[in-house]
Amino acid sequence: MRKTLCFILLLFSIQIHAQQDNAPVVGVSDKRVDVYGLKNARVVVDYQTTLENTDILISNGRIESIGSNLSFPKGTIIYDLTGKTVYPSFIDVYAGNYGIKTQTPTADLNPYAAFMNPAQTGGRSAAISTPEPRIADYWNDGINASFDISSEFIPDTKVAAEYRQAGFGAVVAFKADGIARGTSALVSTGDGKANSVILKNKTSANYSISRSRSADLYPAAQFGIIALLRQVNYDAQWYKQLPPGYFHDDGLEAYTANLTLPQIFEVTNKLEIMRADKIGKEFGINYIIKGGGDEYQALNDIKKAGNKLIIPLNFPEAPDVKDPYDAASVLYTTLKHYELAPSNLSRVSGAGLTFAITSSDLKQRSSFLANLRKAVKYGLPEAEALKALTYTPSSMIGASDLVGAIKKNMIANLLITSGNIFSEDCIVYENFVQGVPYRFIDLRIKDLRGTYNLKVDTTRYKMILSGTFDKPTIKLTIDSTEVRGATFILDKDLVSISFDRSRQKFRLSGYVNAKDIEGRGQLDNGKWVTWKATYTSNATEPDSRQRRSTLPIPELGKVVYPFTAYGWTELPKQEDVLFKNATVWTSEKEGKLLNTDVLVQKGKISKIGKNLTTADGIRIIDATGMHLTPGIIDEHSHIAMDGSNEMGQAITSEVRVGDIVDPEDQSIYRQLAGGVTLSHILHGSANPIGGQSILIKQRWGHNAEELKVENQVGFLKHALGENVKRSTSRYPNTRMGTEQIIRDAYQRAVDYNNQWKAWNVMKPADRIGKIPPRRDLELDAIVDVLEKRSFIECHTYVQSEGTMIMNLAKDFGVKVNSLIHFNEGYKIADQIVEHGAAASVFSDWWDYKYEVYEGIAYNAAMLINQGVLTCIHSDDAEMGRRLNQEAAKTMKYGGISETEALKLVTINPAIMLHLGDRTGSIKVGKDADLVLWTDYPLSIYARASKTMVDGTFYFDEKLDATMKEQIDSERNRIIANILREAPVTSSTIPNFPRR
Amino acid sequence: MNNKIYISVILILACIFQVRSQSPVVAPAQKKPVMLVGGTIHTGTGDVIENGTIVFTEGKITAVGKTSDIKTDKTGYEVIDVTGKQIYPGLIFPNTSIGLVEIGSGVEVATDNREIGDLNPNVRAIVAYNTDSHVIPVIRSNGILFAQIVPTGTLLPGTSSVVQLDAWNWEDAAYKIDNGIQLGWPRKSSFGGRRGGGGDFTMAATAGTGTYDKNVESLEKIFSDAIAYAAVDKPEEVNLRLESLKGLFDGTKTLFISSTEPKGIIAAISFGKRYGVKKMVLVGADESAWAVKDFLKENNIPVLLSDPLSVPKYDYSDTRLPFKLAAMFKKEGILVGLTYSKQAYGNLPFAAGQTVSYGLSKEEALQTVTLNSAKILGIDDKTGSLEVGKDANIVVSTGDILDMATNNIEYAFITGRNINLDNKHKQLYRRFQAKYENAK
After folding, report:
1. Does the beta-carbon distance from A849 to B425 stay under 8 Å?
2. Are B343 and A845 inside 8 Å of each other by CB?
3. What percent of chain A has pLDDT over 70?
4. What is the DSSP string of B47-86?
5. How many angstroms separate the Cα of B155 from the Cα of each of A161, A807, B117, B151, B212?
């Protein structure tokens, strides 16, 4: 049947062309009638207005007139649409790659391959090479601002048919490749030539936060992409100021010109919406953001950001939970999203956000209508749904005078349906696109489903026709016994039936006659008989699909923040707390205080003393026999970040970890369970200069911005040794080259800084005709170090490179803030003291590569004994949970005292991170970042019982156990719901009404 | 005699003045009977003897008990006063690559634990074991005296052995040679567990995915061939691979099964049963093994637990599950030994200590790195506990061995030999302390 439909569509596309054409006629012209009159329809003019008994005149692809009792000119093809409803065809504002020939990748899609050994990449080796010099375009292949889709667009009849069948009459096509993707065009879903199908060119400029294909390895990670987008914007500003004849760049010219268009930015999840918005805000751009369908998980943040949204209906398929062992590997997050995704649009709409709906991201576009109806069933108001498919998308791209409503002079894109398009049994008969009807279901086809008395010759049967409207199935019984092998074929008005009975083949052929069906048939012996099926009732066999669609919506679980296990339904609140009678480890000169009380008010430590009394409203915690310490600070961590290295270049100081903080990483919570309250999140160690790091507090449940420590200074990650030199196809390959590439970067930054200083003191008149310095985010970050706004964190292993980086820093008038990992630090502790650097080291972590061959567990103790400000870090999400134990090892290896040992993970890292006056010790006035331990905190037997950040308990052992129970019962509930539902099958044809 | 003194002096000088550090001298055989008097003895059987004494002669324990109960005449004995100190059986480190891998990564020639191919049951870890690895003295000085060294890889990576950690060569080191065959059961799914929390590159290798059936078939083939081969007393053509599997069917070798999927574990153990494997152990048991605990119990399968110092597998997992699993299995009556997967191997006792606040008693935790592992590795007839007749494999610590705050090994004996506890870390410590002291 589907094949037949396609064939019919093909015929239509050959014969009917209402569109304009300026090409010479070849052969004999075949221009057909393009005037249509639709009579007596219920017309949904736009998402707000519906007219009953209305006529529409379509001529030359446009709506000629609309009203009641229109008089149609002679030669009009008339449709009597009594009882039918007409809608404006939908608009998909996000038709990625429609009409574009997909290109073969020009580079390995795995940008990390060059850094992996062949076993990891399956034997492929990927070289990092400089791409071919480009034409006068932007230097990076990810920036394709000059691409104009009309230069490559050719309508794709197969995809166009899919769009039409899903209800779309116009889509915004663009090339879904690259970071800046050039401009899009509004095109109809008709089958004409590109000239007539393009309704409006340059409808938007498109961008993405993913790298797609690119000949350039850079940017390989998301923070690199964000840095590149920021750099392009600064470059565009610079380009505008250039005197003529100095520098030509097609990319920047196009980029600047495109800024006047609607700016559409694609992301894949709700966190990225916030990231994209932040880029936009920096440059005064309000991006329209194409999201990932999980907006409900961060609705408040998205509302605050205020972007218009384009949202897909990509509801996840039910996870396979049939086998309980297999089900164990289905994550809580997966189950929750599976359950809640269909309610996304309802929630987005409820929050008052402006959004368009797209069919993008669906596995099959044919499931669009079913999913749309599901969204409506889950609470999306029908008017909102229609608005999001008509008015909103058309106005997003400034085309509301062309498409999105059925009004005079607008393009004749409309849908003929059996009724309410949002109800599951609605039939879409035809989609008029640019005035051309594309038929799915013949308006004349009758619904034959029901029960009949079938009389063949003299034998009486009971015949029940069920199933779908256009393709009914037959059940034939005689004296309550089912006749096997019965078939029923409907071809418009003609019917064929066959079945076997009493070793006799029955072949019947006939036609529909009013409510009955009748005709003649032939038996095996060639004998002809007459037959007639007389309609008796509308009773049919139950249909599995019908059964499924009538299942009620399950009661939905709550959205949790962050959207993962151990997320909160309600965020914990700051409390005023008195810890009574604890052993208090101050990490101050007072050392360890026995039987002491600590009062916390408004997030700060307000009193320390014995037998403190308090006012009402203060929660008292009896800490008798327990130990209270400052919150653990992890000086070096890679948790809570999306990605770890921007490996595309060796110097990537422009990338900022702060751009890609992932507040949903469960490591945050798990580290709270180990007493950690603050972490320094750094770029990885693949590059000599990696990127700018960020300090976060473990405020589990808060968004990325709220995790960040207020008023922090900057830190710039540097790295030396094996990690930066291990790619044989990238400079550097030695410690010699490493020194030179860092020195060169610093020297460039000095020169750059001087250029700016000179420019800034120049009088405006003197600047005329001069070339302004170009803002360079890479060098800005190093200038920050030179100007002491940011500080050097350097991944260092062997002593020679430690000496090198300290000397290099000195040459540029700065100090290394912290030598990190530095397993051989003990060899040059005297030099470190002289330089004034701190050391952040592993406690007992060695033998994992050649450069730690002489790494020893006594390192920390030796550094401390020589007077180096030292801390113990994790560099590892697992070890981060046990930093108290790691600190304790310095007592074993080197005999450090217990109070000094605890300082290695409290006040020392706080000082190192320039937060020594705010946190890291128990002192009046400091942030209430505290851990209550069950036991001596430097013992393997101590458990963090409660962990507090800024006066708020984010971890409590007892609460943790309760949450685990809730998580388990929530998983069980959702799994049970999945099992109750029939397996999901996406149907190509919607469910049809009974008569 | 003079010559001996001369050599000793040279050795001592060599230790002190060498530029690069090296392993200390291997202890000679026990000559004189030894008596450790006054310590708290943790026998490894669950008992604690306060103010106890332990006596050993020619490498064997001859008496253990309360000091007041030991009537042995002290004449001719080396008496060591260990009053106030803690005495333990030497710790056992199963499933490790100590002595096979000298440098964790980046120096491929320094690794000797992974042979080419999937069906290598015949390759033997023992022959590649480097007694002079610089790692060995370091971990020995934390109380670890035995290790099961294992080849790694997919399907059948090879044959493991148990070694004692103070020897001149691998023949001397071998404590139980060729004790087990390693089986890496193929993975069915590519599910990796948790979301990448940072640190490493997110492209996890998913070797074996999609080839499950093929891999199982190839295991079935080699096992059925091995059974047929074992039935012939003197085969005309010797097949080293099939020869190596023989011991599984007569109980002289244990099958060490690795699988981290519930169905994989059931499939692997059923596989072993089907082919008549006498002894099986599940290695790297994690929460997937917990899911099939009843099956393990019914089949009497002991587990070598996955490193307790690891993060939970799924987002919904108990926040501290890896710390709790040892107690959970123990409560079910399943025999539990511990493994430790990171390179700083000296932390094995602390991995055991970590389980104590999460359900095990200290003595039970001790058993997970002593007697239980000895049973699992098939060496409990000789070691794993401090009992008369067993080898004198003894550690004396100033304080609780399971806690880094107190672990400080003062003596270690392997078959009565008093082990030199110096190591490369201590040597480098002294060397650079000297640098700073000289500068004063």
Report:
1. no
2. yes
3. 92
4. -EEEEEEEEEETTEEEEEEEGGG-----TT-EEEE-TT-E
5. 50, 52, 9, 11, 11
Amino acid at A710: E
The mean pLDDT of B169-191, rounded to a whole number, is: 91
Please list, in sequence order, all residues whose beta carbon lies within 8 angstroms of the beta carbon of residue A573, skipping any fewer than 6 positions away. A952
| Residue B122 identity | N
Asked if A325 and B263 come within 8 Å (Cβ–Cβ), the reply is: yes
Classified as helix, coil or strand, A494 is strand
Higher pLDDT, A526 or B93: B93
Q: Which of A768, A808, A771 is closest to A792 using CA atoms?
A: A808
Cα separation, B190 vs B209, whole angstroms: 6
**Is the pLDDT at B180 greater than 90, yes or no?**
yes
Q: Which of residues 633-652 of A touch B (CB under 8 A)?
A: 637-641, 643-645
pLDDT higher than threshold 90 for residue A198: yes
Domains and their CATH numbers in chain A: 1-89+404-445 (2.30.40.10), 91-399 (3.20.20.140), 450-539 (2.40.128.120), 575-630+921-950 (2.30.40.10)
pLDDT tens track for A56-113:
999 999 999 999 999 999 999 999 999 999 999 999 999 999 999 865 444 444 445 5
pLDDT at A362: 96
Instruction: Give the gap in angstroms from C-alpha B43 to the nearest C-alpha of chain A.
Output: 21
In this complex, is the C-beta atom of A722 within 8 Å of any C-beta atom belonging to chain B? Answer: yes
Q: What is the pLDDT of residue A727?
A: 85
Task: Please name the residue of chain B whose CA is at the shortest distance from the CA of residue A681.
Answer: B198
pLDDT at A536: 92
**Predicted TM-score of the model (pTM):** 0.91
Q: pLDDT at position A540, please?
A: 82
Q: Do B405 and A112 touch (CB under 8 A)?
A: no
DSSP conformational letter for A200: E
pLDDT in the model for residue B204: 29
pLDDT at A544: 52
Closest of A431, A468, A422 to residue A448, by C-alpha: A468
Residues 889-908 of A with CB under 8 A from B: 889, 891-894, 898
Alpha carbon of B75: minimum distance to chain A alpha carbons (Å): 36
As a whole number, mean pLDDT of residues B411-432 equals: 97
Q: Are strands A504-513 and A494-501 parallel, antiparallel or unpaired?
A: antiparallel
Q: A interface mutation test: which of B201, B288, B409, B426 has the most A CBs within 10 A? A: B201
A723 interfaces chain B, CB cutoff of 8 Å: no
Task: Output the pLDDT for position A125.
Answer: 38
* Chain A residue with minimum CA distance to B262: A325
Give the pLDDT score at B188: 80
Degrees to nearest 5, angle at CA A304 with A299 and A308: 80
Given this model, what pLDDT does residue A735 score?
Answer: 97
Q: Which residue has the tokens 């180990």?
A: A674
What the block records as the tokens of A956 is 């409590």
Which residues contact residue A747 at a Cβ distance below 8 angstroms, ignoring those fewer than 6 apart? none
Phi-psi label, residue A7: left if phi above 0, alpha if psi -120 to 50, beta otherwise:
alpha
* CB-based contact A565 B315, cutoff 8 Å: yes
For the residues B125-137, what does the mean pLDDT come to?
96
Taking CA–CA distances from A332, the nearest residue in chain B reads B316
**Domains observed in chain B:** 98-137+152-195+204-334 (3.20.20.140)
B425: closest CA of chain A, how far (Å): 5
The pLDDT of residue A17 is 45
Taking the Cβ of residue A940 and every Cβ of chain B, the question of whether any pair is shorter than 8 Å is answered with yes
pLDDT for the residue A30: 80
Task: List C-alpha distances in Å: A127 to A108, A115, A183, A650, B2.
Answer: 9, 9, 32, 14, 64
Please enumerate in sequence order all residues whose Cβ is within 8 A of that of A590, keeping only pairs 6 or more positions apart, or say none.
Answer: none
